[in-house]
Amino acid sequence: MERKKYVVIMAAGSGTRMGSDLPKQFIEIGGKAILRRTIEAFVKACPGITVVTVLPEVHMGYWRDYCIKSNFICPQIIVKGGITRFHSVRNALSKVPDGALVAVHDGVRPFVTPELIRKMYERAAHVQALIPVLPCVDTMKMLEKKKDAEGNPFLDEIPGAHVDRELLYGAQTPQIFHSEILSEAYSRAYDTAFTDDASVVSAHGKKLSFVIGERLNIKITTQENLVPSKAILEVIGKN
Description:
This protein is an alpha/beta fold. About 30% of the residues lie in helices and about 25% in strands. The chain has helices at about 35-45, 60-70, 85-95, 115-125, 180-185, 195-205, 225-235, and strands at about 5-10, 30, 30-35, 50-55, 75-80, 100-105, 130-135, 145, 155, 170, 175-180, 210. Strands 1, 4, 5, 6, 7, 10, 11 and 12 form an 8-stranded mixed beta sheet that branches. A two-stranded antiparallel sheet has the order 2-3. Helix 1 (about 35-45) packs across helix 4 (about 115-125). The longest helix is centred in the last third of the chain and has 14 residues, at about 225-235.
């Protein structure tokens, strides 16, 4: 039996790094809220997908009003965010049944393509956990934080330390899982080492599978990210 598709859209951040009164997920680019563009990518890729949107409790009303005023007609299950991303995902998973395919995606990654989403759901039907990654293109340095005689902090190299760039990949979202696997993994206690869903599932002893992601699938977290975002919008011609 084919697994039903769900997506958990993580949009519970307060947007402090953006330096705006309005959380970053609600900022408009090209006349649409970033969060709306993100959700639209999944709806376009998989018509009939169930959308679970995780929001700060204080902005749930704002988002409902936005959807009505902008005529954004998309059925959503709205879930209150937790004290950390881990707890927010756990809250959302209470709305996802076992036996489904569930993607977890950052609400501020609006440029993920429907093509990648479809490809990942197709592959995820045959593996327990599927993660998009990109090879590292920068030269990496291993450094440690130190303080000088006056107590001023500085970075210093670690003698003999070497990073092989060929082995380094950066993880993106969406990360797609068999829902029962992800729910089991999130039943464990919170750990600060859990930086994404893949790390939670890996700690639970489950094997991860990988696909190459997309360079334009950027995460918008600061004002500086808005400049390339507008340029990307023009390049891909996204309405």
